[in-house]
Amino acid sequence: MEKIEEQFANLHIARRSSEQKEPTYLLDIATSKTVQAEKGSLVAVLCSNGSIRIYDKETLNVLREFSGSPGLLNGVRFANCCDSVYSASTDGAVRCWDARVAGGKPVQLFRGYPGNIFISFDVNCKDHVICAGTEKVDDDALLVFWDARIASQDLSTRDPLGAYSETHSDDITQVRFHPSNPNMVVSGSTDGLVNVFDISVDNEEDALVATCNSISSVSCIGWCGRDYKQIYCMTHDEGFCWWDLGHLDTDEPITCLNIQDVREVTDVKEGRLDYLIGGLYHEKMDRLFVIGGTNTGKIHIMSCAASGLTHVTSLQQGHAATVRSFCWDVSEDSLLTGGEDAQLLLWKPGAVEKTFTKKDSLKSASSVQQRVRIHSNDSYKRRQQQ
């Protein structure tokens, strides 16, 4: 544990992005998985103005920008085998751009069914399948699937392979494919359910492997544990759940941890905890960490165990407002963070920033923030009693 504490505590700011003309929230971050040292690694950042910015990772200079107009973009992902970058949109499509080529038009368009409003998505580890989650429209909340493989040079619009429609009753806020099994996917919804599917099975009912109930609106989900046999979930009212799918066929309970409000039970050594940002599974250490923060920009890193969450360290003097996104680089143990102060920061072990000036908050009105559905503790307690 000391080694892990030292690793995180030794993170310091190496770079920060240059100030943009239009200040925006940085809502999601993804890094390129390809190795092209001569050209440098790329970072894709989803911004609240409806664009995706492509940065050079070492300099944090903006190389190019893509727009999802007329829809509002949700989520950003790099493909695993190339520098294609994807995002879902509220106009009912998933778009794919070539991150190394400037240009306003996507190279592929994956169109959903009429009326679909996509608010979450993911691409599987083989880059073969895309899955997107919709807002609830009428009585439908769908998981829509496409074949993402390029069979020819024809990059025309793709139609869906099909959809799951029976397992969620409200907005599907999160979709995450398994890191190494291309057929396993987990989804989370404002209905409180976290569902695990094996999409190699023909029909939705049989494809449903497990259903876990967070008792609240799901904001974040992910895979963790040795061989990624566990899943975790965070809720919009700062709850945290952790389940072990390896116990599905045993008499052991699958729930490892269930905290209704992390802020009330977790002691952070350097102040308060205002919100949760996401989870970080450290594969080398086989340990799950929970990342949270304060409204003034402080980042808290907490270690997860069956006994609860334990404060490890805090990263300070970086952001001036709420941190919305982060991305951990396993290869160099570095961390990228983005926030409502419009800053993208690169944290590296033992780094020294050449020009260190903490910027004032560049808070801007965010259309994405206005769409977030806040669920109070009372709301899910009432549901639990029903």
How would you describe the overall organization of this protein?
By secondary structure, the chain is mainly β. The chain has one domain (2-370): 7 Propeller (Methylamine Dehydrogenase, Chain H). Helices cover 8% and strands 44% of the residues. It is built from five helices and 28 strands. It has helices spanning 2-9, 204-207, 262-265, 367-371, 377-385, and strands at residues 11-16, 26-31, 42-47, 51-56, 62-67, 73-78, 84-89, 93-98, 108-111, 118-123, 129-134, 143-147, 162-164, 172-177, 184-189, 193-198, 208-213, 218-224, 230-235, 240-244, 255-259, 275-282, 287-293, 299-305, 308-315, 323-329, 334-339, 344-349. A four-stranded antiparallel β-sheet has the order 1-28-27-26. Strands 2-3-4-5 form a four-stranded antiparallel β-sheet, with no helix packed on it. A four-stranded antiparallel β-sheet has the order 6-7-8-9, with no helix packed on it. A hairpin with a 3-residue loop joins strand 7 and strand 8.
Strand content: 35-45%
The assigned structural class equals mainly beta
How would you describe the shape?
globular
Biggest beta sheet summary: 4 strands, antiparallel
CATH architecture: 7 Propeller
The overall average pLDDT, rounded, is 88
**Between the first and last Cα atoms, what is the distance in angstroms?**
42 Å
| CATH fold annotation | Methylamine Dehydrogenase, Chain H
- Point out poorly predicted stretches: 356-386
* Major sheet strand order: 1-28-27-26
Rg over C-alpha atoms, rounded to the nearest angstrom: 20 Å
CATH homologous superfamily caption: YVTN repeat-like/Quinoprotein amine dehydrogenase
Helical residues, percent: under 10%
Number of helices: 5
In total, the number of strands is 28
